Inverse folding.
C-alpha cells in the first residue's frame, strides 16, 4: 500500500511540476523584439534598449537573441501562423523578398499614417532606403546596415616591403600584392573573408553587373540568375586561382576568418563593415581599411547594402503599435544612431547623424570608419545592379552558391561547371517561387 | 617461474596500452579544461598552450552573465529529470502489461510502441512543431518534455528482464491474493531497481543532449537549454570565437551527465549486463 | 506469446499501456501522417498558399544530385562511426576483460565519453582543429614541414574530423555494452577451445564473437540511429554541412530544407524516405532481438 502511495505521489508531483510552468506575466505594454545580434554588438543593442525602457516607463522592449539571421527568419516564419510572433523582428537583407511576400507585416511607411502622425522618410541615407523600398516606399526600418570592405594589416604590409598606405584597389593588384607578401614569408596566406556568397554579390554590383533578371528581382520576381556569364566566370576563376596559389584561404560562412586576421596570420580580410569595431578592439596591429577591389575595365557600380532591417508584425493592438513606433523613432534619433555606429561599425541610417559625426571630427580621428561611407556614397545608385539583389528563395540560393564555391576551391568541379550547376539549381528554385506566388 | 614472469609481462603490456588509451580518450577534455582557464589572448597563442592559465573563474563568470547559464542549467536539469522519470514510469507500466497479460491486439500495440524507434524527432519535426503550436505549447516546458515521453529503449529493457522472471513469482502472488497492481508495485518494481537506474542514466543523458528541438521550440531566453547556450556563445560571436569562454561553458555542461553516470555507474553497468545476457 | 499471469483483468493491460500509446499516437504517428500528407504539397513559407503537386517532391528528391551526395555522405559517415566505433570499442572491451588489476578504474576511465553531448564533442573537436589557430593543424604543420590542414576547404578531412568526434563520443557507450556482453561469455568455453589447441585469436572469432552477436546487433542499430539523428548538434556546431555539402548528412539536409529554406513539402518527403530506411534496419534488428528473447525462455 505504501509503495502505491509513493508511486501516486511521484505521479502527482510530476504532473504538478508540469502544470506549474509559469507563463510570462503581462506588463503594461510589452514589445517583443527578435534579433540576431550577438557578441560585442549585443552589448550595444542591449544598452540602447535599456535606455529606451528607462525613458519610457509605460513601455518595455524585450529583446531576444534568436540565433543567426537564418534561424531568426525561420523562427519568425514558423511562429507567425501560431500567433507567437514578436512585435518586431530583425531580418537580414536576404530575407527581404520573403518578408515582402509574407502578408505578415505592416510596411513601415504606413505606420505613422495609422497613428495619425507624419514622418520624414527623406532623412535616411539613400542607398539604404533604396534597398528596402518597394515602389519608392520603405517597407522595413533601416537598422543595421553594412557593406563589405577590405581590411588590411599595415604592419604586415610594412614587413613585406609594401607601402602600408597603398592597399590594393583591383583584383590584379590583389594577386601582385599577394605574391609579394607570400614571397616575403611573413604569413602563409594573404587574404581571407567572410560571407563568400555576399561578397560575390558585392563584386557583381561593384562592377555594375546584374545577378538576376528583372533588374535583380526589383521590377518583378526574378525568373533566372544571370551571373554565370563571362564576368561571373572571371570572378570565380580569379578566386579559385588565388586559392590555388595560396594567396586566398577560404574563410568559412560568416565571421570565422576574423580570428586569423586578428591573430596576424593573414594580411587582408574582405568582410562586412560591421566587424570594424570588433576588429579594432581585438587586434594589436595597425588596421587599415579600403574599398573592395575592382575588376579593371568594367563599369563602376556600387557596393550594396547588407545587414538587417526591422519588420513590424501586423495585427498588433494600437497600444503595441504605438510602442513599436516609439521604439523605431528612438532608434532613428541622432544620438542613438551615432552610438550604434560607434559601437559596431554599422552605418548610422540618417543623414543627420552622419553630418553630426562629420562635424565632431569622428572620421578624421579614425579614418577606418570613413571607408564604408565613401565607398557607398562614391558609387552610383541609379542602376538596378548597384542597388542590390532581391530574390524569393534567396537563403537557399546563397547556400547553393557557397557550396559551388567550396567545390570549386576544393577542385571537385571546375569554376565554370560549379557556377553553371549552381545557376541551374537556383533557376529551379526561382521557378518554384514564381509558381507559388503566381505572377 | 617463467610462467609467472610471462604473465606479469603480459599484464604490464596490457596496462600500458590501457593507460595510453585512457589518455588518448581523455585528451580532448583535457584540452577543453586547459582552454577554459586561459585568457582570450592566451587561447589564440601559437603554438597553442597546453598548461593551465589562471582565468577559469573569470571565464566562468562570463558564461554565467552572458548567457544566463544559471537558468539554462536549471532548465536542462529539470527537463532531463522529468523526462527520465516519466519515461521510466511509462515503460515500466507497458512492459508489465506486455509480459504479464494476454490481451487482444497485443502484437499490434507492441509494434506500435516499437515504431517510436523509427520515428525520431528529426523525422517528424515540422508537423510536431505545428502540433505544439496548436496546443499553445510553444516555448513551454510541455513542448520540451511531453513529445519525448514514449520510450522503446525502456520498454525493451524491462520487457527483456521480466521475461526472465520465473512464473512462480506472479503465480505465488496471485495465490496469496495480491492484485496485479500490488504485485507490480511491491515485487516487480523493487526487483527492477537496477534496470530503472540504467534507464535513468540513458534517458537523462539523452535529454541533456537535446539540441535541435529546444532550438526550434523555445522563443525566449528563459526557456533555453544549455546546449543552445553553447551555440549562442560560439556560432554567433562576431570577432573570433572566444574559445576560453566557450570551453568554460562546455566544462559546466559536461558535468551533470558525468555525475549521473558515475553515481549510478554500478547499477547502470549491471542493468546493461542483464540486458545483454542470455 | 506468454501466458496470462493474471487472468480476469480484462481492462488492466489496456490501462497500463494507455499512456504510452497515447503519447505515441499524438506525438509520433499523428505528426508522421501529417508529414506524409505535406510531402504531397508545396507551400509558401508563411503558408499563405498551398499547391498540391502529387509525387513531385519525391521525383525531385531522387533526381537531386545534392540529395544523392547527402546519401553518400551519410553512408560514409555512418560506416565510419559504426564500423570504426564498434571495432575499437570491442578491442578495448576485450582488453578490459583480461584478468588484470584495476579493471574498475579502467572501466570508469574509458566509459565516461558516453556522458558527453554531441554538441560538446563538436565544440571541443572544432576548437582542436580550428584551421588557422588550432592545436592539430599546428602539430600537423610541424610534423609535415608546413602542410596546412584546413578542414573548411577539404570535404574529406571535414567528414573525417566530424566522424572522429562522433565516434569518440560514442565509444564509452559501446564499451559498456561490449564489456557486459564479454563478461557473459563463460570462461569454460574459451578454456575448452584453448585445450583444443585454438589460439586466442581463433578462440575469439569462433567462440566469443558469435556469442556476442545479440550485443553486436543491438549496438549496430543504436549506433546507426546515433549516426543518423543524434549527431545533428555536432554537425551544426562544427561544419553546418560544409564545405560544399561534404558533411551534409540526411538529417541536416532535412533541417536546412525544411526549416532554413522553408520548403516543408520537400523536407517531409525526406522524412518519409529516412523513415523507410530506418524501418528496414529496425525490423531486421527486432527479428534478432525477439529471436533472442524466445531463445532465452
Amino acid at each position: 500500500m505504501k509503495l502505491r502511495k509513493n508511486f501516486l505521489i511521484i505521479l502527482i508531483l510530476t504532473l504538478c511540476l508540469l502544470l506549474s510552468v509559469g507563463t510570462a506575466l503581462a506588463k503594461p505594454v510589452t514589445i517583443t523584439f527578435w534579433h540576431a545580434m550577438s557578441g560585442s554588438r549585443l552589448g550595444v543593442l542591449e544598452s540602447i534598449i535599456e535606455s529606451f525602457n528607462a525613458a519610457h516607463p509605460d513601455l518595455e522592449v524585450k529583446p531576444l537573441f534568436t540565433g543567426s539571421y537564418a534561424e531568426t527568419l525561420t523562427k519568425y516564419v514558423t511562429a507567425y501562423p501560431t500567433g507567437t510572433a514578436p512585435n518586431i523582428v530583425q531580418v537580414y537583407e536576404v530575407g527581404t523578398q520573403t518578408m515582402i511576400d509574407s502578408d505578415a507585416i505592416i510596411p513601415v511607411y504606413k505606420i505613422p499614417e495609422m497613428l495619425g502622425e507624419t514622418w520624414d522618410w527623406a532623412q535616411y541615407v539613400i542607398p539604404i532606403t533604396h534597398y528596402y523600398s518597394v515602389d519608392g516606399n520603405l517597407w522595413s526600418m533601416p537598422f543595421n546596415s553594412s557593406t563589405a570592405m577590405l581590411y588590411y594589416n599595415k604592419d604586415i604590409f610594412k614587413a613585406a616591403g609594401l607601402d602600408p598606405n597603398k592597399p590594393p584597389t583591383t583584383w590584379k593588384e590583389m594577386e601582385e600584392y599577394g605574391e609579394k607578401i607570400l614571397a616575403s614569408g611573413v604569413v602563409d596566406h594573404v587574404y581571407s573573408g567572410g560571407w563568400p556568397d555576399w561578397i560575390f554579390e558585392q563584386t557583381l554590383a561593384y562592377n555594375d553587373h546584374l545577378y538576376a533578371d528583372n533588374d535583380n528581382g526589383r521590377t518583378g520576381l526574378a525568373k533566372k540568375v544571370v551571373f554565370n556569364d563571362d564576368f561571373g566566370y572571371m570572378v570565380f576563376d580569379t578566386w579559385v586561382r588565388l586559392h590555388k596559389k595560396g594567396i586566398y584561404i577560404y574563410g568559412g560562412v560568416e565571421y570565422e576568418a576574423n580570428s586569423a586576421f586578428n591573430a596576424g596570420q593573414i594580411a587582408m580580410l574582405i568582410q562586412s563593415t560591421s566587424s570594424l569595431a570588433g576588429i579594432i578592439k581585438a587586434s594589436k596591429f595597425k588596421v587599415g581599411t579600403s574599398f573592395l577591389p575592382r575588376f579593371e575595365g568594367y563599369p563602376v557600380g556600387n557596393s550594396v547594402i547588407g545587414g538587417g532591417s526591422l519588420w513590424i508584425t501586423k495585427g498588433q493592438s494600437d497600444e503595441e503599435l504605438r510602442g513599436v513606433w516609439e521604439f523605431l523613432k528612438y532608434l532613428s534619433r541622432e544620438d542613438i544612431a551615432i552610438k550604434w555606429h560607434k559601437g559596431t561599425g554599422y552605418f548610422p541610417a540618417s543623414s543627420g547623424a552622419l553630418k553630426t559625426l562629420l562635424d565632431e571630427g569622428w572620421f578624421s580621428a579614425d579614418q577606418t570608419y570613413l571607408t564604408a561611407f565613401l565607398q557607398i556614397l562614391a558609387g552610383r545608385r541609379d542602376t538596378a545592379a548597384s542597388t542590390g539583389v532581391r530574390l524569393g528563395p534567396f537563403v537557399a540560393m546563397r547556400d547553393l552558391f557557397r557550396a559551388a564555391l567550396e567545390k570549386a576551391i576544393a577542385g571537385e568541379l571546375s569554376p565554370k561547371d560549379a557556377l553553371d550547376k549552381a545557376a541551374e539549381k537556383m533557376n529551379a528554385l526561382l521557378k518554384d517561387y514564381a509558381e507559388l506566388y503566381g505572377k | 617461474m617463467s610462467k609467472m614472469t610471462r604473465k606479469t609481462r603480459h599484464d604490464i603490456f596490457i596496462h600500458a596500452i590501457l593507460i595510453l588509451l585512457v589518455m588518448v580518450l581523455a585528451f580532448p577534455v583535457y584540452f577543453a579544461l586547459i582552454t577554459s582557464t586561459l585568457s582570450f589572448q592566451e587561447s589564440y597563442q601559437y603554438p597553442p598552450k597546453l598548461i593551465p592559465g589562471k582565468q577559469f573563474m573569470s571565464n566562468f563568470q562570463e558564461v554565467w552573465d552572458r548567457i544566463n547559464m544559471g537558468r539554462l542549467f536549471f532548465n536542462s536539469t529539470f527537463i532531463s529529470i522529468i523526462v527520465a522519470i516519466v519515461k521510466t514510469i511509462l515503460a515500466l507500466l507497458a512492459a508489465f502489461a506486455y509480459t504479464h497479460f494476454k490481451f487482444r491486439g497485443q502484437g499490434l500495440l507492441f509494434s506500435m510502441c516499437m515504431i517510436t524507434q523509427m520515428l525520431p524527432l528529426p523525422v517528424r519535426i515540422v508537423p510536431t512543431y505545428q502540433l505544439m503550436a496548436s496546443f499553445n505549447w510553444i516555448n513551454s516546458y510541455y513542448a520540451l518534455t511531453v513529445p519525448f515521453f514514449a520510450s522503446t529503449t525502456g520498454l525493451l529493457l524491462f520487457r527483456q528482464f521480466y521475461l526472465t522472471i520465473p512464473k512462480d513469482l506472479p503465480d505465488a502472488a496471485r495465490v496469496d491474493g495480491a492484485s496485479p497492481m500490488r504485485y507490480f508495485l511491491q515485487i516487480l518494481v523493487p526487483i527492477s531497481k537496477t534496470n530503472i537506474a540504467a534507464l535513468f542514466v540513458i534517458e537523462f543523458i539523452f535529454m541533456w543532449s537535446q539540441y535541435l528541438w529546444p532550438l526550434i521550440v523555445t522563443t525566449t531566453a528563459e526557456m533555453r537549454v544549455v546546449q543552445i547556450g553553447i551555440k549562442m556563445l560560439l556560432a554567433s560571436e562576431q570577432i573570433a570565437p572566444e574559445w576560453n569562454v566557450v570551453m568554460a561553458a562546455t566544462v559546466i555542461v559536461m558535468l551533470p551527465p558525468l555525475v549521473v553516470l558515475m553515481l549510478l555507474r554500478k547499477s547502470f553497468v549491471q542493468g546493461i549486463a542483464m540486458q545483454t545476457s542470455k | 506469446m506468454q501466458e496470462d499471469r493474471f487472468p480476469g483483468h480484462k481492462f488492466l493491460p489496456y490501462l497500463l499501456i494507455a499512456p504510452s500509446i497515447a503519447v505515441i499516437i499524438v506525438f509520433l504517428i499523428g505528426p508522421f501522417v501529417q508529414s506524409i500528407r505535406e510531402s504531397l504539397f508545396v507551400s509558401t513559407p508563411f503558408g499563405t498558399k498551398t499547391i498540391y503537386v502529387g509525387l513531385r517532391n519525391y521525383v525531385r528528391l531522387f533526381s537531386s544530385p545534392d540529395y544523392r551526395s547527402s546519401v553518400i555522405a551519410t553512408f560514409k559517415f555512418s560506416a565510419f562511426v559504426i564500423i570504426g566505433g564498434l571495432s575499437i570499442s570491442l578491442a578495448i572491451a576485450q582488453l578490459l576483460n583480461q584478468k588484470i588489476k584495476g579493471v574498475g578504474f579502467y572501466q570508469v576511465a574509458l566509459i565516461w565519453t558516453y556522458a558527453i553531448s554531441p554538441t560538446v564533442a563538436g565544440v571541443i573537436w572544432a576548437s582542436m582543429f580550428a584551421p588557422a589557430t588550432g592545436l592539430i593543424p599546428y602539430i600537423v604543420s610541424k610534423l609535415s614541414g608546413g602542410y596546412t590542414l584546413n578542414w573548411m576547404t577539404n570535404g574529406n578531412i571535414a567528414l573525417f574530423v566530424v566522424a572522429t568526434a562522433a565516434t569518440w563520443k560514442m565509444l564509452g557507450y559501446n564499451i559498456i555494452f561490449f564489456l557486459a556482453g564479454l563478461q557473459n561469455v563463460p570462461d569454460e568455453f574459451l578454456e575448452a577451445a584453448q585445450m583444443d589447441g585454438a589460439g586466442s585469436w581463433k578462440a575469439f572469432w569462433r567462440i566469443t564473437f558469435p556469442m556476442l552477436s545479440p550485443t553486436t546487433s543491438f549496438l549496430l542499430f543504436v549506433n546507426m540511429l546515433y549516426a543518423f539523428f543524434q549527431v545533428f548538434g555536432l554537425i551544426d556546431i562544427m561544419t553546418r554541412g560544409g564545405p560544399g555539402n561534404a558533411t551534409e548528412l540526411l538529417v541536416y539536409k532535412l533541417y536546412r530544407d525544411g526549416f532554413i529554406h522553408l520548403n516543408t513539402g520537400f523536407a517531409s518527403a525526406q522524412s518519409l524516405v529516412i523513415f523507410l530506411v530506418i524501418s528496414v534496419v529496425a525490423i531486421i534488428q527486432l527479428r534478432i532481438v525477439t529471436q533472442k528473447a524466445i531463445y532465452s525462455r
In short: Chain A touches chain C through 46 residues (CB under 8 Å). Residues 19-26 of chain A have pLDDT under 50 and may be disordered.
